[in-house]
Amino acid sequence: MSFAELFDSGFKNRNKGHFSSIVRVAMENGHLSEEERLFLDKLAHQLEISDEEYKEILENPLKYPINPPYLHTQRLERLYDLSRMVYADHVLGPKQKEILTRFALALGFTPGNVQYIVDKALSLLVLNVDLDTFLFEMQHMNK
User: CA distances (Å), 17 to each of 45, 59, 111, 113, 132, in order?
Assistant: First the structure.
């Protein structure tokens, strides 16, 4: 196995873990809405998740662990994806916010400020911001 294959394998597993965590959020209410399904389809394509892997993850989203990224920007990008999934049907139930909080902690955000981070993330999605705006606002929210 070459070095490139090792790198590709690790990258692919991180993508599967990330996709799996988003599927868990989407399926928290026991089913997927059409909007959630479309979002998952688009995200699977972006993360290079094959049709077979997609079906496997939908059947058992707990199979892949959450792999928190090392870089803060990458954590924010994943938080953006997860927040968009929670907000996909525009109904912010308390359980969805609780799930997002758990995933934010799993991504490496600290318990002391995770509620503030989740609230800020969801408030930005209410404004329908894009990824670049989300990253800028999240990185400068204490200034």
Answer: 15, 14, 22, 24, 23
Q: Say if residues 123 and 69 touch (Cβ distance below 8 Å).
A: no
- In tens, the pLDDT along 84-116 reads 877 776 666 667 788 788 888 888 899 999 999
For the stretch 6-53, pLDDT in tens is 445 677 888 888 888 888 878 877 888 887 888 889 889 888 999 999
Which of 68, 72, 75, 81 is closest to 19 using CA atoms?
Answer: 81
Q: How far apart are CA 127 and CA 111, in angstroms?
A: 25
- Angle at Cα 23 formed by Cα 124 and Cα 125, nearest 5°? 5
Letter for the amino acid at 86?
A: V
